[in-house]
Amino acid sequence: MTNVEAIKALKDIKTYAQANALDALDYAIKVLEKLDKDGINNPLENSEKDGK
Prior knowledge:
By secondary structure, the protein is an all-alpha fold. The protein is 67% helix and 0% strand. The protein contains three helices and no strands. It has helices at residues 3-14, 22-37, 43-49. Helix 1 runs antiparallel to helix 2 (22-37). The mean pLDDT is 88.
C-alpha cells in the first residue's frame, strides 16, 4: 500500500469516525502527506530494506 492509497482510505474513514478519533486521523493523514511530499512513498517497505 502506498501513502496515497492510505491517505484516501483514512479520509474515507473520517466520514464515519467518532468525534474523539478525528484528531488522530487528521494527524495520521498529515504525517503520510508529509512523507509522500518528502519522497518516501512506501515507508514500511523502506524500513524493511534498511533492516529495521
